[in-house]
C-alpha cells in the first residue's frame, strides 16, 4: 500500500533510454557506463538504462549497467510482448533492484493507427504483459503511452487492470508534450480518485517538452498526487526533449516553501553531470539554459552587477555553489557599470584612484561598444597602456 500523501518524490532518470532517443545523442557502451556512474553518484532513485529488445548493443549495456550500479534501481523498457518482457528481465536481472517498465498506447489515435487494435485487446495485453513482468521481478512499471490524450473512462480501466495484474508503478506520460499544468494535475487527481485500487501503486509523471511545459507539467502532476518524476539530464530526449532533471530538482529545492517534496539528489553534482552528458552525447547545452547553461549565473548589466555586488540575493534565487558552479560571473560588456568595473580592477590587482578609474572606465566603455564581451586580458592591456602613458 502506498501513501500518496507522503512528501518523498522518486527521481526516475531516463537519460540513457528516452534521452538517447534524441536524434544525434547515441552513446557507446563505455559512454553509457560513464553516465550511469554519474547518475548513481547524483542520487537518482531509478535509472532507465535502455530498451533491451531494441538491439544486442542495448541489451548488453542494460545488462552491464545492472551489474555495475550500486545504489539506484535499474529499469529496462519493453513493449507489451512476451519476447520483449523476457529479454528485458534477462537484461536487468543482476541489478540490486531490477525493474521492468512495460508500456502500450491507450489513446484513440494510437490504438487505431499505430497499434490497429481494439480497446478490449489493449486491456488484455496490459493484463498479460504486467503479469508476465511480475513473474520475473517485484518492481513493475506500466505506462499508458499517449496517456494525456486518452479517454478518461478507458484510462481508468487500463490503470485498474495494470494494478490488478501486479504493476507497482503507474506512469501516465504526456508523450507528445500536449498537456498543461492544470490539466495534468487534474488528470492524476481524477485517476487516483476513480480507480478503486489506486493506493496500491506509485503514480508517475513523464513529460515531453513540445510546448516548453515539461517541467511545469511534471511538478503539477506531483501536486496531483504523483510521486515519481521521469526526466533526463539537460532535458535531452525525443523531439523537443523531456523534462530536465536539474530544473525539476532545483525548482523543488528553491521553492520548497510551496513545493514540499523531498528527493535524494546531491544538487552540487548537477553541473558536473550536465557537462558529462553533454560531452558524451556531443549535444551542446544552450547558453541560457536554466541551472546548467553557461549564463545561468552570469550578469552583464550595470544595474544587475551593482545589485549583485551589494547582495547576491538581489538577482540570484539560488547560489551557484548549490548546483556545483564555483561562483557567479560578472561578465564585462557594454552594459556593465562603474561599480563592477572597479571590482574587476581590484580583482586584477589595480588601484587607479578616482581620476584613473574615470579615464580607464571611459576607455573600457569605448572598447565594450566595439566588442561583445570584454575579457580580463583586454582590461589588463587597456589599464597597462593607460598607466604607461600617464
Ligand atoms: O513518452 C513516452 O510515452 C515514453 C513511454 C515509453 C514511457 O517514453
Ligand atoms: Zn518519453
UniProtKB/TrEMBL annotation:
<comment type="pathway">
    <text>Amino-acid biosynthesis; L-leucine biosynthesis; L-leucine from 3-methyl-2-oxobutanoate: step 1/4.</text>
</comment>
<feature type="binding site">
    <location>
        <position position="206"/>
    </location>
    <ligand>
        <name>Mn(2+)</name>
    </ligand>
</feature>
<keyword id="KW-0963">Cytoplasm</keyword>
<feature type="binding site">
    <location>
        <position position="208"/>
    </location>
    <ligand>
        <name>Mn(2+)</name>
    </ligand>
</feature>
<keyword id="KW-0100">Branched-chain amino acid biosynthesis</keyword>
<comment type="subunit">
    <text>Homodimer.</text>
</comment>
<feature type="binding site">
    <location>
        <position position="242"/>
    </location>
    <ligand>
        <name>Mn(2+)</name>
    </ligand>
</feature>
<dbReference type="GO" id="GO:0005829">
    <property type="term" value="C:cytosol"/>
</dbReference>
<keyword id="KW-0464">Manganese</keyword>
<comment type="function">
    <text>Catalyzes the condensation of the acetyl group of acetyl-CoA with 3-methyl-2-oxobutanoate (2-ketoisovalerate) to form 3-carboxy-3-hydroxy-4-methylpentanoate (2-isopropylmalate).</text>
</comment>
<keyword id="KW-0479">Metal-binding</keyword>
<feature type="binding site">
    <location>
        <position position="18"/>
    </location>
    <ligand>
        <name>Mn(2+)</name>
    </ligand>
</feature>
<keyword id="KW-0808">Transferase</keyword>
<dbReference type="GO" id="GO:0003852">
    <property type="term" value="F:2-isopropylmalate synthase activity"/>
</dbReference>
<keyword id="KW-0432">Leucine biosynthesis</keyword>
<keyword id="KW-0028">Amino-acid biosynthesis</keyword>
<comment type="similarity">
    <text>Belongs to the alpha-IPM synthase/homocitrate synthase family. LeuA type 1 subfamily.</text>
</comment>
<dbReference type="GO" id="GO:0003985">
    <property type="term" value="F:acetyl-CoA C-acetyltransferase activity"/>
</dbReference>
<dbReference type="GO" id="GO:0030145">
    <property type="term" value="F:manganese ion binding"/>
</dbReference>
<protein>
    <recommendedName>
        <fullName>2-isopropylmalate synthase</fullName>
        <ecNumber>2.3.3.13</ecNumber>
    </recommendedName>
</protein>
<dbReference type="GO" id="GO:0009098">
    <property type="term" value="P:L-leucine biosynthetic process"/>
</dbReference>
